[in-house]
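Researcher: Re-running this chain for the archive, since the previous output was lost when a drive failed. Same request as before.
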Amino acid sequence: MNVRTKFPAHGYAGLSIITLAEVLLFSGDSLIGRWFTPIIWTGFILFIDALLYKHRGSSPLVSNRREFLFVAIVSVGGWWLFELYNAPRFWRSDLELWWHYHNLEPNLFLRRVGYDWAFATIFPALFLAAELFRATLFKHRSNFRPIKFSKPTLYVLIFVGATGAILPLVVVSKWFVPIVWLSWIALLDPINALRGSPSITIDLARGDYRRLASLLASGAACGVLWEFWNYWAITKWTYTVPYLGDVKIFEMPVLGYFGFPPFTVECWAVYVFCRSLLGGKKTQMVDDAQEDASIWMSDSNY
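Model: Regenerated structure tokens:
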């Protein structure tokens, strides 16, 4: 067997972490129960990265560690951004939190470590799963009708996205929960396209739906795993939403699962936008757009 196709050691480490964490959790270990989420998702990242490496001979943890670190940092900042939408409910006693954290670490320093460690796993887990879907299930391009957006349309989308991103912070209402998981796509993906960065907008203009399908599939798969593993943890989160909030699968109201796929697209748009701020060569929009090989979920990686 070619050495590049062997299943690397960190994959076995990841699988061992997942297995051991599950065993200790169900055996009643309270320490693992309190730190279960960041531990289990660290194991997941190691395992999925190894699967990706075995399948295509390269992976972020093996071939692009600097970008992996950048994605983890953006993941922390990105989720703290989403936490802002929950923030008004902390100083308004008449408002319910959209999501609640339970049994948090009493030491505030360790609590922050737990927050940031858990948040740092979100984007890497989503993008690695999407990379794996892209390299397997959605590897081959199918011929779909291109969907092209004019520049005026993109500017309208940006305005709509900006309005949607700001509105839940100005008018605090539990009915605006879905807007949070859609507005940043409308805001940032057209901006990424106009800046010549990889974007779903450009993909659709090419008639290439592989990246979109991979991100959506990753969100659906990781969403189920998030809620499955969260359900058994000691330190966990629950939700208060007005849409069939009592009809749940694990702790998530059933309609909430429809939010995970677009959330993944949103996370990727946030990452690409942050990545573009580092500079580098820009390309022409749509027709002449070329991928930046350093960006996860890039055509240049295949």
